[in-house]
Amino acid sequence: MQPIYDESYEMIVQGAEVEQQQEEYYPVKLITSLGTIHCRHYPVPSSDKAVIWVGGVGGGWDTPARGLYPLLCQQLIKDGIASLRIRFRYSTQLIDSIVDVLAGISYLHHEGIKNFALVGHSFGGAVVIQAAAQSPDVSTVVTLATQSYGTEAVSQLATRCSLLLLHGTADQVLSPYCSQSVYQLALQPKRLILYPNANHSLNEVADEVTQVVRDWIVGQLNSSSARVL
Q1: Whether the Cβ atoms of residue 154 and residue 163 lie closer than 8 Å to each other
Q2: Other C-beta atoms within 10 Å of 79: how many?
Q3: Which pLDDT does position 229 carry in this prediction?
Q4: Is there a contact between 106 and 98 (Cβ–Cβ < 8 Å)?
Q5: E strand or H helix at 54, and its extent?
Q6: pLDDT digits (tens, 9 = 90+) for 72-104
Q7: Cα 144-149-150 angle, rounded to 5 deg
Q8: Pfam families under this entry (predicted)?
Q9: CA pair distance 24, 37, nearest whole angstrom
Q10: CA-CA distance, 152 to 181, in Å (whole number)?
Q11: DSSP state, 132?
C-alpha cells in the first residue's frame, strides 16, 4: 500500500487484518504508523467501484437518515458497488479524519478499486471534501448536513468530481447556509437539495434521502467508469 502524506505528518498503511464476516460486512483493521483504523468492508468480487462512508464528531458507527449507511452498503452490492465504512480514530480532529479516509482509499486500491464515491455527514462532509481534493480517483462526493468549516478545498474538485449536498432547513446543529456556501464555492457538476422541516439527522426524510443518494452514486460511478473506458 502507498504511503499517505499530510502537511504535518506521514501515515503509512502497514497492513490490514480482516476478521470473520458479520452479516453483510467484514470487520477490517487498518494497521498504520499512526494507529489502528476500524472499518467495515462490504466487498463485491471483481468490482472496481466503491463508496467510503463516514459520520460526524460523535464517532463510532454513527449514520444519518435512519440507518442510511448500512442500508445503502447492502443495497449497492446489487449494483456492483462495494462499500467501506470508516470509524475515525479521533472523530473531532479534521486532519486525522482526512488521513483515515485516505488510508481507506489506499486499502481499497489494494483490493482493486479504481473509482470512488465519498459520503460524509456533518463534520464528515468537510472530511470527504478534503480527501477527494487529494485523491484523483474520487469521482463524486455526497455531503449530508455538512459543516462549512474546512470545506474550502471543494473548489479544487473542479470538473473531475461531482458534488451532491443535502441539508434540512430545520437543522438546529448546522444551518443549511453551510451547504449553500459550499455549493457556491464548488464548480460544476454540482447539486444542492434542501429538505423543508428536516433536522440535522435528516431522519424526517430518510426514505427520500436513501433513494436520492443511491441513484446519485450509481449514476455518477457508472458514468465515470464509462468515460474511463
Answers
A1: yes
A2: 15
A3: 42
A4: no
A5: strand 49-54
A6: 999 999 999 999 999 999 999 999 999 999 999
A7: 90
A8: Abhydrolase_1
A9: 19
A10: 10
A11: H
Quote the cell numbers at residue 57: 464528531
Alpha helices in the chain (DSSP H): 68-77, 94-110, 123-134, 177-185, 206-228
Q: Which residue has the cell 470527504?
A: 128
Q: How many CB atoms lie within 10 A of CB 164?
A: 22
Among 134, 102, 128, smallest CA distance to 182 is for 128
Query: Where do we find the cell 452514486?
Result: 217
Among candidate residues 125, 123, 144, the one with its CA nearest the CA of residue 56 = 123
Q: Can you tell me which residue has the cell 453551510?
A: 178
Model confidence, pTM: 0.95
Write the single-letter amino acid at 215.
D
Single-letter residue type at 139? S
What is the CB-side half-sphere exposure of residue 219 using CA atoms within 13 A? 11
Cell of 38: 476500524
pLDDT under 70: residue ranges of the chain: 1-9, 225-229
* Residue 124 near residue 55 (C-beta atoms within 8 A): yes
Peptide bond into 189 cis (omega under 30): yes
Domains of the chain with bracketed CATH: 40-228 (3.40.50.1820)
Report the residue count for the chain.
229
The sign of the dihedral angle between the CA atoms of 221, 222, 224, 225 is positive
